[in-house]
Amino acid sequence: MVTTILLTRCELPAADLWFAPTRADTVNEMVWFFERNDEFLRVETRYDRDTAEFVLITHAPDGGEQTERFTDAVTFRLRLEALECQLEATHWTQHGPLFLHDGWRRT
């Protein structure tokens, strides 16, 4: 089963912050695309069952890649929230279709 997850806006109150799965078996992989001018950035999240870690991979426009690993969902969620705020502060916008928490595309 794959669950699609949205990163939320940085200014939302704490109760509405990004949803991180509490069960690692519910998420395989998620990909978000961001755009700034003529540049594109890709953010991937996944759960590595072999190491029991949440994985965050950022693909930069220049081809560089950064991988971060987290042993718990709370730390992983907090890092995603910080990354989203960083991207927003540097004028990156989400590119492509937006998906709801239940996995359906917003029309």
SSE blueprint:
Blueprint lengths: L28 E8 L2 E10 L4 E7 L5 E6 L2 H17 L3 E3 L12
Antiparallel strand pairs: 1-2, 1-5, 2-3, 3-4
- What's the number of extended β-strand segments? 5
Supply Rg: 14 Å
First-last Cα distance: 23 Å
**What is the residue-averaged pLDDT?**
75
What general form does the structure show? Answer: globular
Estimate the strand proportion: 25-35%
Poorly predicted runs of 5 or more residues = 1-9, 11-22, 101-105
Helix content: 10-25%
Structural class: alpha+beta
Question: What's the quick description here?
Answer:
The protein is α+β, with helices and mostly antiparallel strands. Helices cover 16% and strands 32% of the residues.
What do you see in this structure?
It is globular, with a radius of gyration of 14 Å. Residues 1-9, 11-22 and 101-105 have low confidence and may be disordered. It starts with 28 loop residues before the first strand and ends in a 12-residue tail after the last strand. The protein has one helix spanning 73-89, and strands spanning 29-36, 39-48, 53-59, 65-70, 93-95. The protein has a domain at 26-95. Strand 2 (39-48) and strand 3 (53-59) form a beta hairpin. The chain contains 1 helix and 5 strands; from the N terminus they run E-E-E-E-H-E. 16% of the residues lie in helices and 32% in strands. The chain has a 5-stranded antiparallel sheet, covered by helices on one side. The protein is of the alpha+beta class and 107 residues long.
Features:
107 residues; 1 helix; 5 strands; globular
